[in-house]
Hints:
mainly beta; four-stranded antiparallel sheet
Amino acid sequence: MGKLSILFFCLFASTAVKAAGDTTFKYVVEKTISGNFTNFYTDNFGNIFLLSKNNQVKKLNAQYDSAGVFNDVRRYGDISLLDVSNPMKIAVYYKDFSTLLIADRFLNIRNTIDLRNAGILQAKAVAQSYDNNYWVFDELDNALKKIDDKGNILLQSPDFRILLQEAFRPTCIIDAESQLYICDENKGCLVFDYYGTYKKLIPFKGRQNIQIANATINSTDSSFFYTYNMATFNETKITSPIALAGAIKVQMAMNKLYVLTQSGLTIYSAGK
């Protein structure tokens, strides 16, 4: 079982274990960051990127101290997403302008990629690739495309309507563990290799907060946490004592649980 899955059980299976009189794990509030945030992201160094309603991005380090601010808020409208999978190279995507800004770890802009120059006029799902390029799902062509730092198209998949015989509307792209996952919250995750070749569909419906680590897909709905083991094809449903229905976003990272609500971001850690 992967670290994310183990942490799910450490945080949320404690009631049943305690009833048996054994050593228990429980969730404890480690930090609360009050504010009016619309999203957040965490990287592999424990840094947190908080996105406010006025499109300011504030970076906090692992000790929750301020480590940078991104304020390029007027030129391209609202920020649609960040990709912080590479802590040294932050991708900031503006869907309304089909524009991708690339910042360094200090949140200084180093590159601008206009996807329209590559003929990509509408894209919701964008992600960094393992080789420092970018994955984009072109909604008009219904195809996965890989582009470089200059906006050149390096490869392109077939039309998804031909692959699947139905509409597929990706909400996120995840490059993880030598595979590419393109996820639709109402249909599941399509699995591709790094050459854009379709391999399979892992089906589920009505899921949010999709994460992939250690051959496990972790997700939530309004009441439960789910862990799907891609090796055994088994899925576990875990009841949450935290009100997921009121959460804007939930994420597991660095052995912590991050929960964003209207009042701010709360970080939980596993404790005995």
